[in-house]
């Protein structure tokens, strides 16, 4: 009984897992035709040996029917060997095959028993051998489907054992007992093997699932590594790889390509005013607009932040590229209508065509440089990199290298421009202006090297050199006079830079008579840090001036929140004071604002008597410009002050005489 219980434990229903069903289906697809071929051969051999002793119905008709059934079943399996089936259909066919197997087993065993009475002992032994060996062969062929193997074994073994045990003939009884034992052992082995087969299929399925999950994670990582998650555009990594590939193909074919870089102007203000979520929506819409404009062979990527890159194929002459650039820039000028409101932006683009000796880096570098030129000189428009830009870039790179290796103590020198107080009728101070004389390039305009120094992080070195020279000059100036030194955004925003400035002033050992001029751009970066830096300078006894007032953002806010002593009105307002009523009104407002806040107001860029008279009539009194004196060397200050004193003394005598 324990044997039968063990067999029972090995007998599950038809498998529920689709993977096991399909594995059994594929295995039977190879084995069933072999099983039917074995049945046909064995049946024909038995019919042949009994042909002379048994009726024709048993040696011709019955075998023909059985062989035909086997042929039909073989044809059905052969026909379906490459057909795609679903797990559910495969399960139904396995069940049908199990039922058909039992029915055919009964048919074959019935035919065998009908032949048994005919013939001698040899032929009867052949019948017993035929039933036994055919049953074992069928069980092996059906080993992957437990139900089918069990159905065949039961349908054959039960009548076989009963028939031969009931015969009373010792040899036949022994054969029956042997057959039962062999089939039972085979059942245990085959059913156990089937269990291992199911476990193997389950293991393979689990492995396939793990591989699928691994592939999914790989694909997801690949997507994250190469696709921008916000816009679903390729990212910088994909752009660089595609550019290198397209450039190799362009060099091989001799057909140039072009690269465009598009940057949104002042995009940071969108995040600051509306929030990052709105900024993300704007970027998504920007990506959509670029995608709508691109040609099928154009590669578009989001490079970083508010910067997008394009790889262009087709004509790359300057006129065509300029047209592409303007098309992109114009598309960004249309308002972005979002739930938070309509947002208007502009975009600047730089484009560059490839050359024979280009690398991906050099080509993109030119497009990047063209974008910088567009943002600087033609904001909201496109610039195509041309030969003149190449010369400028070469000069800038050379200048950058020389600035980095320069001995600033020797190469940087200062000039001083007087600041004249109309109310006192005297010069009250000088602005210290940095100049650079390179031993290789000669005199370099501050309009060139100051922005370069700010971009390359060299500006603090220049500030230190200028401040040292200013402190040395200030030690010899008459006591009432003060010096104004410009500080960059990096100086104000860096705790280290401010500490170095403070240390220099303290080490000079003289009372601080410095006015430090800052720009609104420097303040905008970090108002809190700017305040801390300015307070550290105020502790030295220095004064603070806001330079280029009126040209930046939120100027009134800065005047209110910063510890300022004076503001310097930008020369652009002074230039139009005699011709533009709006400029005069703005200047008058600035003067009144300064008076109400208790700070002084300095006007830059005064070049004519008419400008001076207009400013004085509006209430201005501290002036700076060529009308009062051009920038001069420190050794010319004494002569300048002497002339001024003599002139003032002469005017005083004339007034007394009058």
Question: pLDDT under 50 segments (min length 5)?
Answer: 1-14
Rg value: 49 Å
Average pLDDT confidence is: 84
Number of alpha- plus pi-helical segments: 25
**Which overall shape is indicated by the principal axes computed on the Cα atoms?**
rod-shaped
Indicate the proportion of strand residues.
5-15%
For the sheet with most strands, the description reads:
8 strands, mixed, barrel
Oligomeric status of the shown chains? Answer: single chain
In whole angstroms, the N-to-C terminal distance is 145 Å
Roughly what percent helix?
A: 55-70%
Main structural class: alpha/beta
Which strands sit side by side, in order, in the main sheet? 8-9-11-12-13-14-15-16
Number of strands: 16
Structure description:
This protein has 658 residues and is an alpha/beta fold. Among the domains are: 2-209, no CATH class; 236-385, Reverse transcriptase/Diguanylate cyclase domain (Alpha-Beta Plaits, 2-Layer Sandwich), CATH 3.30.70; 487-551, no CATH class. Helix content is 63%, strand content 14%. It contains 25 helices and 16 strands. Helix 21 links the parallel strand 13 and strand 14. It starts with a helix and ends with a helix.
């Amino acid at each position: 009984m324990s044997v039968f219980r063990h067999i029972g434990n090995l007998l599950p229903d038809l498998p529920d897992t689709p993977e096991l069903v399909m594995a059994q289906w594929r295995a039977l697809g190879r084995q069933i035709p072999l099983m039917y071929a074995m049945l046909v051969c064995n049946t024909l051999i038995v019919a042949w040996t009994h042909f002379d002793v048994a009726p024709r119905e048993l040696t011709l008709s019955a075998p023909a029917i059985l062989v035909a059934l086997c042929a039909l079943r073989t044809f059905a399996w052969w026909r379906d060997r490459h057909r795609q089936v679903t797990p559910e259909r495969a399960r139904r066919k396995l069940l049908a095959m199990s039922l058909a197997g039992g029915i055919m087993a009964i048919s074959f065993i019935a035919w065998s028993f009908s032949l048994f009475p005919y013939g001698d002992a040899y032929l009867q032994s052949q019948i017993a051998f035929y039933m036994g060996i055919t049953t074992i062969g069928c069980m092996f062929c059906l080993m992957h489907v437990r139900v089918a193997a069990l159905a065949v074994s039961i349908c054959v073994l039960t009548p076989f054992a009963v028939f031969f045990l009931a015969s009373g003939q010792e040899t036949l009884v022994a054969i029956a007992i042997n057959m039962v034992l062999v089939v039972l052992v085979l059942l245990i082995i085959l059913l156990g093997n089937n269990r291992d087969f199911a476990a193997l299929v389950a293991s393979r399925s689990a492995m396939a699932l793990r591989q699928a999950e691994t592939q999914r994670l790989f694909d997801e990582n690949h997507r994250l590594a190469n696709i921008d998650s916000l816009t679903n555009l390729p990212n910088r990594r994909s752009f660089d790889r595609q550019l290198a590939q397209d450039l190799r193909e362009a060099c091989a074919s001799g057909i140039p390509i072009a690269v465009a870089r598009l940057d949104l102007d002042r995009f940071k203000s969108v995040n600051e005013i509306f929030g990052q979520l709105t900024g993300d929506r704007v970027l998504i819409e920007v990506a959509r607009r670029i995608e709508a404009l691109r040609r099928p062979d154009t590669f578009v990527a989001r490079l970083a932040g508010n910067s997008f890159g394009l790889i262009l194929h087709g004509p790359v002459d300057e006129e065509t590229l300029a047209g592409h650039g303007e098309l992109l820039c114009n598309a960004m000028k249309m308002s972005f209508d979002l739930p938070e409101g309509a947002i208007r932006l502009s975009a600047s683009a730089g484009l560059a065509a490839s050359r024979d000796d280009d690398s991906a880096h050099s080509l993109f570098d030119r497009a990047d440089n063209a974008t910088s030129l567009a943002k600087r000189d033609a904001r909201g428009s496109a610039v195509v990199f041309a030969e003149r830009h190449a010369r400028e870039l070469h000069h800038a790179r050379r200048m950058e290298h020389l600035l980095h290796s320069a001995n600033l103590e020797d190469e940087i020198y200062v000039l001083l421009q007087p600041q004249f107080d109309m109310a006192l009728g005297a010069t009250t101070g000088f602005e210290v202006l940095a100049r650079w004389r390179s031993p290789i390039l000669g005199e370099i305009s501050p309009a060139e090297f100051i922005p370069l120094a700010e971009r390359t992080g060299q500006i603090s070195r220049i500030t230190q050199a200028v401040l040292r020279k200013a402190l040395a000059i200030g030690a010899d100036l008459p006591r009432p006079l003060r010096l104004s030194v410009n500080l960059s955004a990096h100086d104000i925003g860096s705790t280290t830079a401010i500490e170095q400035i403070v240390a220099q002033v303290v080490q000079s050992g003289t009372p601080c008579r410095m006015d430090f001029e800052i720009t609104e751009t420097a303040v905008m970066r970090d108002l809190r840090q700017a305040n801390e830096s300015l307070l550290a300078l105020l502790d030295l006894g220095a004064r603070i001036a806001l330079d280029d007032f009126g040209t930046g953002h939120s100027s009134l806010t800065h005047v209110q929140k910063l510890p300022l002593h004076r503001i310097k009105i930008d020369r652009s307002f002074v230039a139009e004071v005699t011709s533009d009523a709006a400029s005069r009104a703005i200047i008058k407002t600035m003067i009144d604002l300064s008076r109400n806040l208790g700070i002084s107001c300095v006007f830059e860029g005064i070049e004519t008597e008419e400008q001076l008279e207009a400013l004085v009539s509006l209430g201005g009194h501290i002036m700076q410009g060529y009308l009062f004196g051009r920038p001069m060397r420190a050794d010319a200050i004494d002569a300048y002050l002497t002339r001024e004193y003599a002139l003032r003394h002469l005017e005083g005598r004339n007034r007394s005489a009058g």
